């Protein structure tokens, strides 16, 4: 019975792993063991932070909407409540963009939902 030599397979596996560590520093880019640990850590952060990004942006939009609302003599919570009551269906992303880039349009919306 002949023994199994893993030379090419092992090399290919290492090359595939090291392709993911491009741009890493020190041993993490060149040593298989350190590279594997670094890649696993990076992928877990990547997975986690795709979810965190959504949270962060929503918080940022809320801050921007609140700032715009306060310039129009109302608060974030009152504005959102009035929008729900008036059946104005703009999401927070669009509202934040309006509050930041087009304050006159945002003030028209606040006046509309105040009535």
Keywords, separated by commas or semicolons:
115 residues, mainly alpha, c-terminal domain of poly(a) binding protein
Task: Please sum up the structure shown.
This protein is mostly helical and 115 residues long. It contains 5 helices and no strands.
What does this structure look like?
By secondary structure, the chain is mostly helical. The protein has one domain: Orthogonal Bundle (c-terminal domain of poly(a) binding protein), CATH 1.10.1900. Helices cover 75% and strands 0% of the residues. Helix 2 (32-71) packs across helix 4 and helix 3 (76-86) crosses helix 5. The mean pLDDT is 92.
Strand coverage percent: under 5%
Strand and helix order: HHHHH
Intertermini distance: 88 Å
Count of individual helical segments? 5
The Cα radius of gyration reads 26 Å
**Mind telling me the CATH class?**
Mainly Alpha
What's the number of structural domains? Answer: 1
Q: What's the total number of strands?
A: 0
Structural class: mainly alpha
């Amino acid at each position: 019975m002949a023994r199994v030599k893993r030379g090419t397979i092992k090399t290919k596996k290492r090359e595939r792993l090291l392709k993911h560590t491009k741009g890493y520093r020190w041993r993490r880019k060149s040593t298989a063991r350190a590279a594997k640990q670094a890649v696993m850590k990076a992928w877990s952060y990547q997975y986690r932070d795709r979810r965190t990004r959504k949270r962060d942006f929503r918080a940022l939009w809320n801050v921007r909407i609140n700032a715009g609302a306060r310039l129009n003599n109302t608060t974030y919570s009152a504005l959102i409540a009035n929008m729900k009551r008036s059946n104005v269906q703009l999401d927070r992303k669009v509202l934040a963009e309006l509050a930041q880039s087009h304050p006159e349009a945002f003030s028209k919306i606040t006046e509309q939902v105040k009535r």
